[in-house]
Known about the structure:
Blueprint: E1 54-57, H1 79-94, H2 110-119, H3 136-147, E2 151-156, H4 161-165, H5 167-176, E3 181-185, E4 192-199, E5 206-211, H6 222-227, E6 231-235, E7 245-250
Antiparallel strand pairs: 1-4, 2-7, 3-4, 3-7, 4-5, 5-6
Helix pairs in contact: 1-3
Amino acid sequence: xxxxxxxxxxxxxxxxxxxxxxxxxxxxxxxxxxxxxxxxxxxxxxxxxxxxxxxxxxxxxxxxxxxxxxxxxxxxxxxxxxxxxxxxxxxxxxxxxxxxxxxxxxxxxxxxxxxxxxxxxxxxxxxxxxxxxxxxxxxxxxxxxxxxxxxxxxxxxxxxxxxxxxxxxxxxxxxxxxxxxxxxxxxxxxxxxxxxxxxxxxxxxxxxxxxxxxxxxxxxxxxxxxxxxxxxxxxxxxxxxxxxxxxxxxxxxxx
Length: 255
């Protein structure tokens, strides 16, 4: 399956030695800074409507990864990596049964994600150290590579009605699997973390709980993250009707 969200590769200085080697090694450099990230940034967010009849959210905890949160300036190309890191943080902190204490692999860094895709043969060697985007398909490969978690990739042919029909699939995912979902598309190619879905009665539409990784700046408190809309409810009908969308759903209940 081809990469659906591509960008032109461009060499950059990562400011650190790239991690090469076995997939469960070389994690020390990103084990400490994750403790400064905001946890469960969606908690306390008001319901998107007064007449919601069904609402399904992630279970457990995840971290808010965003542009530059580790000191790496990835503006314009790193949103898919950040959403992937948020999904990985959920696996580490909330996946049941939990791994032995101290054995949980922290979310992979951007260089580790790129090297994993090269090691699997999905990308050429030039991909490592580039500014090339990744999408839902690459996220599925990386989660399987580092955490042995398979993912279901759902293709939605368009926004609007087609995306509304996918709401029930998301309800089932959050109720059974409980993990964050990655969403990306073609015209709307901005990666989004989906933490929940709410549906109104009588075909009045659904809302997605979106964690937007495009924030760049110092750490924000939860009130600011929510108040500025970086974590917010988005009406499904407000998304691009002319864009297809792909959803990456980690299948955690199989383990």
